[in-house]
Amino acid sequence: MVQDSPKIILEYAQNAAIATLTDEKILEETDIQAIESTIMPLIEQTASINLVLDFSNVFFLSSAVLGLLIRISKKVYESNGQLRLCSINKKIFQIFTITRLDKIFDIHEDRQSALDSLN
Amino acid sequence: MVLKSSTNKSILINSDTSSVGKICNLLLEELRGKNYAPEEVFAIHLALEEAMINAVKHGNKFDPAKKVDVNYTISDEKFEITVTDQGSGFSYKNLPDPRLEENLYKPCGRGVLLMRSYMDVVEFNETGNAVHMIKYKAKH
């Protein structure tokens, strides 16, 4: 049986959960749902989660991914957690600035900076 | 004498996301073959994905009986495309601006903004079930 490679690699450091997105392109609804089905239970099961989403592998994403990030951020903040995004390349970051989502997400250049910003 | 080549092509795709992925890959390969810069290919790719997902999801509601018509031309001057779904259309003139404070936290509604940001021309037909886009190729 061929298994799809995981959409997220989960690690833990400095009292935070770090979720690294593994796909270079995040487009299809099935991929977005797969990411959501991993992240949301993690948030639910971890009180006041410190969550870092690492985009270092991502070179392309659709606006549907932005919607997912908003849903994730709402869930994190409803559970009194904190969310950081990191390692977003220039082209992807431009999507955030065009949509003004750079104003609502706490975005860091690299993972360490994101971790250090968490309480 | 310099011959400029461009061929108009028309393809019908099914109303599912994997068909969108396949046609996007096809178009992107053709763009690279015509020496469009990586930045231009990225921009067109983003706009294509948004336009076609809108057609498949919002226009045709993933109805397997409905098709999306993709009509395009790739030339040395520009990439031009019209994406037409078989839905009833939408009111493109009254789209809320997703950048406004009251809309920033909404999980959807950014596709057309991205299309307009990355393409040089984005026009809808009166019904709202067809979008025409142009990206002019930079002179290198």
What's the topology here?
The complex is a heterodimer of chains A (119) and B (140).
Chain A: E1 8-13, E2 16-21, E3 25-26, H1 29-45, E4 50-54, E5 60-61, H2 63-78, E6 82-86, H3 90-98, E7 107-108, H4 111-116
Parallel strand pairs in A: 2-4, 3-5, 4-6, 6-7
Antiparallel strand pairs in A: 1-2
Helix pairs in contact in A: 1-2
Chain B: E1 7-14, H1 17-33, H2 38-59, E2 67-74, E3 78-84, H3 111-118, E4 121-124, E5 130-136
Antiparallel strand pairs in B: 1-2, 2-3, 3-5, 4-5
Helix pairs in contact in B: 1-2, 2-3
Task: Walk me through this protein's architecture.
The complex is a heterodimer of chains A (119) and B (140). Chain A is α/β, with parallel strands linked by helices and 119 residues long. Chain A has one domain: Transcription Regulator spoIIAA. Chain A has helices at residues 29-45, 63-78, 90-98, 111-116, and strands spanning 8-13, 16-21, 25-26, 50-54, 60-61, 82-86, 107-108. In chain A, strand 1 (8-13) and strand 2 form a beta hairpin. The mean pLDDT of chain A is 93. Chain B has one domain (9-136): Histidine kinase-like ATPase, C-terminal domain (Heat Shock Protein 90, 2-Layer Sandwich). In chain B, 34% of the residues lie in helices and 24% in strands. Chain B has a 5-stranded antiparallel sheet with strand order 1-2-3-5-4, with helices on one face. The mean pLDDT of chain B is 93. Classes of the chains: A alpha/beta (119), B alpha+beta (140).
Spatial sequence of strands, sheet with the most strands of chain B: 1-2-3-5-4
N-C termini distance of chain A: 43 Å
Secondary structure: helix percent of chain B: 25-40%
Rg of chain B, Å, rounded: 15 Å
What's the order of the H and E elements of chain A? EEEHEEHEHEH
Tally of alpha and pi helices of chain B: 3
CATH architecture verdict of chain B: 2-Layer Sandwich
CATH H level of chain B: which superfamily?
Histidine kinase-like ATPase, C-terminal domain
How much of the residues of chain A is beta strand, in percent? Answer: 15-25%
The CATH topology of chain B: Heat Shock Protein 90
The averaged pLDDT of chain B comes out at 93
| Largest β-sheet summary of chain A | 5 strands, mixed
Query: What shape does the CA trace of chain A take?
Result: globular
